[in-house]
Amino acid sequence: MHLSQRQLFLNHQAQTTRFPLLLEFSKAEGVYLYNEIGERWLDLISGISVSSLGHGNEKVKAAIKNQVDAYMHLMVYGEYVQAPQVQLATLLTSLLPPSLNCVYLVNSGAEATDGALKLAKRVTGRSKIIACKQAYHGSTHAALSLNSERMFKEPFEPLLPNVHFMSNGNHDDLSMVDNETACVVIEVVRGESGYIPTDEHFLQALRTQCTQNGALLIFDEIQTGMGRTGKMFAFEHSGIVPDILLLGKALGAGMPIGAFVSSHERMMTLAEQPILGHITTFGGHPVVCAAAVAGIQELLSHNWIAQVAAKERLLRERLQHRAIKSVEGKGLMLALEFESFDQNKRIIDACIANGVLTDWFLFASHKLRIAPPLIVTETQLHEACDVLLEQVEKQA
């Protein structure tokens, strides 16, 4: 008996829930995904903020093909001088403040989180870590340790010790940052809480508290990086500079990559006492790095980032309805708030049935996610808004 792809998926591929969407696509181009019979869906979530250049960017594909022809994996990260790695690190640091001049390339955002925690411990000689409540930094053991929610953590404990949680925006909690603190990890825009921008006054106070106590400030820009908020990096809106920056998702222009960025002086502590203080086999894979370089160059050579603010205004102006309680977020990462998860789920399902892909948030199941590719046109945004508002009216 011939089994369908769907049945093979269910039989042999590890699942993350008992209720996967089971959508099956055969092609993706621009802001649309297509199935085998030509039906299309407008991608309103970019594979969770990954496909900022849309799908099938020609410059990125050409860079991948050229690098495949030259070479693929040669050696574990950090031993050989590989042009795509060097080009990516050089290009990235040229876009960042002088204190963020050294890049460690890994395979994912979660790995970037893990590496940054090790770096903070190594630099400071301390073990106390502070994270924010209802923040998501990845699902590996170390990254999961930064998750405040017992539901996600309890089955996998023990995790990292000496992790403490503060409320994002609560100035009273800043006193938790003391001279025993290695680092504070915070999102400039709170991703899985429903795209809530962190208050700039709080970020500034946190920056001051960290500096005074010798703790390293880590900004998680895994979702916000690469232009999604209208700046290449979200911290540029405030001018507040972290000690370590976490990147991932859109950095690879559709390919898997992560990075943690700090000063050369700090990063070199991972090279001694012990040597190989952090190591990865596939981090900085040359094909992925070639894609990332091409992706950044595409962002720099077009005005997509400059258009983000206008596209945000369009969405905010269009998405007005009595059932939409609020529109939260920054740039092209917005969240529509509804009365309940049940109402939100009905609207999401109806949108998917009518050709618009969206979903909800890990810590805000009553909110609907809007994070389209940065290349989305105003016409396509109107198309998405038409479907959204029609389904909100029907399902509210």
Would you write up a description of this structure?
This protein is an alpha/beta fold and 396 residues long. The chain has two domains: 22-51 and 303-395, Aspartate Aminotransferase, domain 1; 58-301, Aspartate Aminotransferase, domain 2. The chain is built from 13 helices and 16 strands. It has helices spanning 5-12, 46-49, 58-70, 83-94, 109-124, 141-144, 150-153, 200-213, 264-267, 286-301, 304-318, 341-353, 378-395, and strands at 27-29, 32-34, 40-43, 102-106, 128-132, 163-166, 181-187, 189-190, 196-197, 216-220, 244-247, 258-262, 326-330, 333-337, 356-357, 367-370. The strands form four sheets. It has a seven-stranded mixed beta sheet with strand order 4-12-11-10-7-5-6, sandwiched between helices. Strands 1-2-3-15 form a four-stranded mixed beta sheet. The protein has a three-stranded antiparallel beta sheet with strand order 13-14-16. β8 and β9 (196-197) form a beta hairpin. α4 runs parallel beside α10 and α12 crosses α13 (378-395). The relative contact order is 0.16.
Q: What proportion of the residues form beta strands (DSSP E)?
A: 15-25%
Q: Which strand order do you get reading across the main beta sheet?
A: 4-12-11-10-7-5-6
What share of residues is helical?
A: 25-40%
Radius of gyration: 21 Å
Query: How many individual helices?
Result: 13
Largest sheet: 7 strands, mixed
Kindly, what is the distance between the CA atoms of the first and last residues, rounded to a whole number of angstroms? 44 Å
Provide the succession of SSEs. HEEEHHHEHEHHEEEEHEEEHHHEEHEEH
List low-confidence stretches. none
- What would CATH call the architecture of the largest domain? 3-Layer(aba) Sandwich
**Rounded mean pLDDT score:** 96
Decide which structural class fits the backbone: alpha/beta
What is the domain tally? 2
CATH H-level name of the largest domain... which superfamily?
Type I PLP-dependent aspartate aminotransferase-like (Major domain)
User: Could you name the CATH class of the largest domain?
Assistant: Alpha Beta
Principal-axis shape equals globular
CATH topology of the largest domain: Aspartate Aminotransferase, domain 2
How many strands appear in the DSSP assignment? 16
